[in-house]
Amino acid sequence: VLFRSPAAPISFVGMPSDARAHAEWNGILLEPGAAGRRHELRACVFRRLSVGVQDAAANTLIERCAFCNCGTAVNAGLAFHDDRVLVGAAHGASRIRFCRFGWCEVAMQLGFHSRAEATRCWFLECELGIQTSSDEDVQQILERCEFEACAVCVAGTCCVTNCIFERNGVLFRTVGGDLTVRTRNLCAQCRILMDGAPTEGQGLLLQ
With b meaning 16 or more CB within 10 Å and e meaning fewer, what string describes 83-109? Predict the structure, then answer.
């Protein structure tokens, strides 16, 4: 468990703003452990990192954290370390709750073989909000989140429910024929609903 008061959060700060873009400054790597073992990250701040959190443990709670100007803020279910690829267990489930993502290239990379849930998170001006695995089953859950001024909100297989989309570019992008399941979401001032299809109007309720 890694936790500190939200008034004085633990901070992970990477490359300075004028550093080379490909410099690799990483935050936290969680490797797969014993079955049933759970990690918890709360009230942490990740800024200017190549990758904020790599969660190959696939049994992690990330709560009330902030991610700013990261390459990939959270990579849940898959990690790379010392030329190794670490894959989360199929029975695992990462949970990301009440987190804030601002100006990241990719806010969340979810899935592979494991399941991930993101609830009540906020995404501001990210290049890509959610990127999910190409698994055939809809295992990734996105609920009660808000996307504002993002280039692409969701790409890949995901169940999206009760979310708000405002002033975004592309809401949903299919990857290799994957299907994004969407119910009860509100869209306002967004340019493209799915791939190349334009939205039909403002305040669109997606069902």
Answer: eeebebbeebbbbbbebbbbebebbbb
Rounded to an integer, what distance in angstroms lies between the CA atom of residue 96 and that of residue 118?
5
Measured between alpha carbons, how far is 162 from 26 in angstroms, rounded to an integer? 32
CB 144 within 8 A of CB 168: no
End-to-end CA distance of the chain: 38
pLDDT digits (tens, 9 = 90+) for 176-188: 666 677 888 999 9
Helices assigned H by DSSP within the chain:
none
3-state secondary structure (DSSP) of residue 14? coil
Give the integer Cα–Cα distance in Å for 185 and 162: 5
Q: Give the Cα separation of 79 and 131 in Å (integer).
A: 14
* Model pLDDT for residues 44-89, shown as the tens digit of each residue: 999 999 989 988 776 789 999 999 999 999 988 766 665 555 555 5
What is the CA 103 to chain-centroid distance, rounded? Answer: 13
User: Which pTM does this prediction carry?
Assistant: 0.84
115 is written with which tokens?
């399941």
Q: Max alpha carbon distance in the chain (Å)?
A: 50
With the C-alpha atoms ordered 142, 144, 150, 152, is the resulting torsion angle positive or negative? positive
Report the amino acid identity of residue 181. Answer: V
Interatomic CA distance for residues 81 and 30, integer angstroms: 10
Q: How many CA atoms lie within 13 A of 31 on its CB side?
A: 6
